[in-house]
């Protein structure tokens, strides 16, 4: 109606000027204002819609559309996006494990083994099963432990690793020392038979800094063997470079040299027995090799803070349960549920340990808590429901 009224008003204005030819008619200023206001509001609406669309899909969407349109105009077929190459550097970035990282597959395998006999004596697989043997996950899980003296098992593993390293050393090229200036440092070059002289430095710290940069460059180029040699040289300069030691162990493991990695980590434990990360790394390496007793011995005798070392206690509880140390595993899982009561994985571990010790009431309550959290797989939940019924729940 307002539009009709406006049109009628315009007609009245024109009628007032009918004595003329109509060419001098001027639209009222109020009408112009309304028109400009409508145009302004429309522009604001279009801008807002464009902005929110951009925020919703992101800039990559518009860049992809532009690239595809450009290819179509030029007569080319749109190319599929190629997957990025995973570098050693990305594996090193994942060295530190995410807190309490556990997949549904790991829990499912744990339950499947427990299902082999629904009695409390049923054996159980570990949380860190074969699904974690991938190198990227190894690098991700490779850190967080503490103290304890070197054990017979770890010493035997160290000797085996040292033997493997000595065999590799036969193929290491001998550098030409004719033109070496005293005070300079040799590091492996880009090729296997070449070496690079590091600039003369005044202190060990300066040498380490320069070598660390060269190692980082080698890692970025996926030159694992060169990075390993440089990291070894840094440890020869200063054996207390603990972060370098961890990176060296990760590279050796990812390169398939478990023996050398265990030697490096065992040496780290001997040098710094209070460090939790070396112990956790070595225990995980032993665990993947099915050396359960060795893994448990590495973790034994240390009591780091639970809240800051969930991965340490999670692995220790898993290994203890596989070794059928039910009292110890129930104690460890009991500590875990205190600090992380919303983790169904811990409640399930506690339930199975108590179940094996015929502590029906405690096991029943733990199974019920695990079921209530609704975090486990369908097969795990089926197993829990079965045990709850059999325990009289």
Automatic annotation (TrEMBL):
Q: Where are the transmembrane segments?
A: 36-54
For the keyword Transmembrane helix, the answer is yes
Bias category Polar residues: which stretches? 80-92, 125-138
Per UniProt, which keywords does this protein have?
Membrane, Transmembrane, Transmembrane helix
- The record's region (Disordered) falls at 9-28, 73-166
Q: What is this protein called?
A: MSHA biogenesis protein MshN
What is the organism of origin for this protein? Planctobacterium marinum
